[in-house]
Specification:
433 residues, 13-stranded mixed beta sheet, alpha+beta, single chain
């Protein structure tokens, strides 16, 4: 009988010990990482709303990188020389410095009206900051990415944006297409803009109109450079080993949300490898082009996204493009080429180009990444797996004024890299759509 009591006592001790350990773990889990005030709120039944710090921050950071200008120019005052950024890194620093004033301008802009050629020329000739985004950036989305609430007037897109001081007021100009320049007054801090512009020292840049080589509306920023870094182009999959090919393909599959080990795989003619997962298809072409398809129900109606949705789609596309291409672009960088809704196809298309040192790279395909959305879903995408490398040598270019004087026409004229197979030529070219 005494032995039975001893066994029962031992069992009871074990049960109590296990219960104590379980309760200790539950209390520790409940209070882990919670402040004293948080514990008091829990004790009194006060619920806290869960909030995410910077929701979508990663996607937005990629999109912000994509809308950084390729070049900037600043004039301190009327009659002063022009300061121009030498590459995208210095353009980014200039953009960051001017960002608060630009965000305020986008937030307080009044209804735009067409600017006359004289107003535009005067704006470029006075105290101002000029930004070339390389592609057509939706201004409302730009404002959102800069942390501002865009004015209802900011509904267009622009490659060139100028913030100028006129009669003590900050005035926003933007070129919405080849010929149209719009102008709107803002409540941005003009005095602060003047002080920022005064910090920049002229370094030999100039607009073509200042040399009587073009009209001011053609917005040709001429560089004093007579040489630029030499760049070479390589197709990523051309020289990759089998193990590299598998690694690259795995990265691409995971970038598009595939399970890299589960999709059905088959080969098509020409060396194209096809991966299928449910309704989604990914084609990897022998030359390194990637094509993604995710067919949507045609019975559903597409719609034009509002500003918030546009910004989200741009951010989603930027994260996808950067996530896949950042390891392979080499010395090149992405920039937003266009983000627009097509009423006929009911698709919202986001396209990215490539630049090196702030100089756009032109080629057979103007875009190295394209994402097309139907409603809120990514329906198709195109990625060009290509690498651009600086060789360390410089290649000479003729002076800007000489090249412009010999150009048959000036629309689309500028300093570009033109990719042609493995060779990338730097020079003054006319961009063609």
């Amino acid at each position: 009988m005494s032995r039975l009591r001893a066994k029962l006592k031992n069992i009871a001790c074990v049960v109590l010990l296990c219960t104590a350990l379980a309760l200790t773990y539950m209390v520790w889990s409940y209070t882990m990482g919670v402040s004293g005030m948080g514990l008091l709120r829990r004790a009194f039944g006060v619920e806290e709303q869960e909030t995410a710090l910077y929701p979508g921050y990663e996607e937005m950071s990629y999109a912000t990188r994509a809308v950084t200008p390729l070049s900037c120019a600043v004039r301190a005052e009327t009659g002063a020389g022009l300061y121009g950024t030498t590459d995208r890194e210095t353009a980014s620093a200039c953009f960051e410095k001017m960002g608060a004033v630009l965000a305020e301008a986008l937030e307080t802009a009044e209804d735009p009206s067409p600017a006359t050629s004289y107003q535009w020329r005067d704006a470029l000739s006075g105290t101002m900051v000029f930004m070339d985004f390389g592609g057509r950036v939706p201004l409302a989305a730009l404002a959102r990415l800069m942390g501002a609430q865009p004015s209802e007037s900011m509904q267009g897109a622009a490659r060139y944006v100028v913030l100028a001081v006129e009669d003590g007021t900050a005035v926003l100009y933007y070129k919405s297409d080849d010929r149209t320049i719009l102008r709107c007054r803002t409540e941005a801090d003009a005095a602060y803009l003047i002080s920022l512009a005064a910090e920049q020292t002229a370094n030999g840049y100039r607009f073509a109109y200042e040399e009587d080589l073009a009209e001011a509306c053609e917005v040709l920023l001429l560089t004093p450079q007579t040489s630029v870094p030499e760049v070479t182009e390589h197709r990523v999959l051309d020289t990759s080993s089998e193990s590299d090919y598998d690694r690259i393909t795995k990265d691409v599959l995971e970038g598009f949300g595939f399970n890299a080990y589960m999709p059905r795989v088959y080969n098509e003619s020409g060396g194209t490898r096809v991966y299928v997962e449910e309704e989604r298809t990914l084609r990897v072409y022998a030359d390194g082009h990637i094509a993604f398809q995710n067919p949507q129900e045609e019975t559903a109606a597409g719609y034009a996204p509002d500003t918030e949705e546009q910004t989200a789609r741009i951010a989603q596309a930027a994260q996808l493009a950067y996530g896949i291409l950042s390891s392979y672009l080499g010395d090149a960088e992405l920039f937003l080429l266009e983000a627009a809704y097509n009423e006929e196809t009911e698709r919202f298309c986001v396209r990215f180009g490539a630049e090196c040192g702030g100089i756009r790279i032109l080629g057979e395909r103007r875009a190295v990444a394209v994402c097309e959305f139907f409603g809120g879903e990514l329906e198709t995408a195109y990625i060009d797996l290509v690498t651009f490398r600086r060789t360390g040598a410089n290649t000479g270019i003729i002076p800007a004024a000489q090249a412009l004087a010999a150009a048959p026409y000036t629309d689309g004229f500028g300093l570009y890299y033109r990719a042609d197979g493995e060779t990338v030529h730097a020079g003054w070219y006319v961009e063609k759509e």
